[in-house]
Fold each of these.
Amino acid sequence: MPDMTKTETVAAATPSAPGAPVEPAKAEKARSLWGDAWADLRRNPYFIVSSVLILVLLLIAALPGLFTSADPTKGDLVKHFLAKPELASVGSPDWLGYDGQGRSVYARLIYGTRASIIVAVAVTLIVTIVGSITGMIAGYFGGLTDAIMSRVTDIFFGIPFLLGAMVVLQAFTKRTVWTVVFALAFLGWTQINRVMRGAVITVKQADYVHAAKALGAGTSRILIRHILPNAMAPVIVVATIALGGYVAAEATLSYLGLGLASPTISWGVDISAGAAQIRVAQHILLYPSIMLSITVLAFIMLGEAVRNALDPKLR
């Protein structure tokens, strides 16, 4: 028998007074799926690192003037692109060298963040909203509605994503950030649609949904209050991972000359321009490529961390 302290022995031997109120044991507060996910994310180093990187990128996109005072569109032919970057001058216009038109590579790197972030966030918001609404309608109502919407989704699914975006962009004579957003969102909603449809088909079989129907709840209330919150977890995971893919897609289209074009500042535009001088001035191509890779990696790491936190099978 384990040893007991004097106080514990007395407390165990002393019976409670008759009629004395008995304090109920405090029950541990139950946490929801989102509470458990947040607790897991706070302990995940991938989430912390990716979140810090993304916050820095958002700050750069919102306030590029805090990071450089150079004009990214001003060319000075005295600043020759064959000159080596002055890596000791951190943060100065000379830090990463100059491109073929004498523009600061570092300044263009900073200002090019805005276009990539705007495209990625805007496309993700649009495809999440459109895909969630259409997928929820198809999954909940089923029958003919589901059949028609699924066939429409199949048609869009059959179009290669980048090839289809190229065809859509060819219809515009002037390609801006919002033109690229439209082209990517026009073809990118199908994956969210399929994920939401599958989640809704599973959730609508739950007892609380049947109970809400029995109590006379309307369709809109059931969809918004009961089905949507419980079907959003896989959608959030897919949308978070897709953010990095849209950054890469915008850079790819701009590199091919079908996305953003000068005077718009974009990493893809600078990578395309640097490819022409890759034999003599590799830094023009190298630094935008590194920045693009870091951004895509940060969003993918964030998506993986969110997926691990929201999927109970992976805990």
Amino acid sequence: MSDMRLIVAGAGGRMGRALTRAIAESKGAVLAGALEAPGSELLGKDAGVLAGLPANGIKLSADLWAMSKDADGILDFTVPAATIANVAIAAERGIVHVIGTTGLSGSDNAVIKSVTNRAVVVQSGNMSLGVNLLAAVVKRVAKALDQSFDIEIVETHHRMKVDAPSGTALMLGQAAASGRGVTLDDHSERGRDGITGARRPGNIGFASLRGGTVAGDHSVSFLGPFERLTLSHQAEDRMLFAHGALKASLWAHGKQPGHYSMADVLGLSDI
């Protein structure tokens, strides 16, 4: 099979540059396009140079329709509005859409899922192997422990992150809720401040820390009578997310239309 031709969305950003490097470092994929927001001062710049690589001749452009003509997939770690704009074009072109964008609303996710009867979408709040294994373990532990064990999720990210809780924290919360057989929307506790009253049994708590250059730290604690269990993951470099997204795109190439997750990619969907 020939190399998969990939577009990097948000190619001028930190994750976009990491994705460009990951493609350059890996076999089986080549960079086919570099997408950037209309009006960006980076339009026309060489994607390779921006990523700290030799010039590759791929210039940043805002025209996804044109660059997707000869592409097989798009790696999308941008912002909700941009991702939703990209969804329709990717589906129309019939290319794989790997979505790592966080902060998506319920209506945003409904739009994404609406195209999966005719398009291949791989979506995850976190593309790392370790985090997805952590989510599988969290689900198992939540199922094994009853509501006498409170669940608290703490996440730390760099000062520039704009959404909270992180997509990864929410993914871990979904795993815990699934293990308990409840919905996260009905059992989520966030933003404690002032006189909040006692903790409600069965709720899943979230706390978000922001500062420095932290790529992403997450912990899930199960706090029971006289004992507690904490499961955690530390991301040391965002390249791990880039390589995970690339793995997802290669896995999805040639798959039947549908909405997939990293659990599917890693063979963890039955856990």
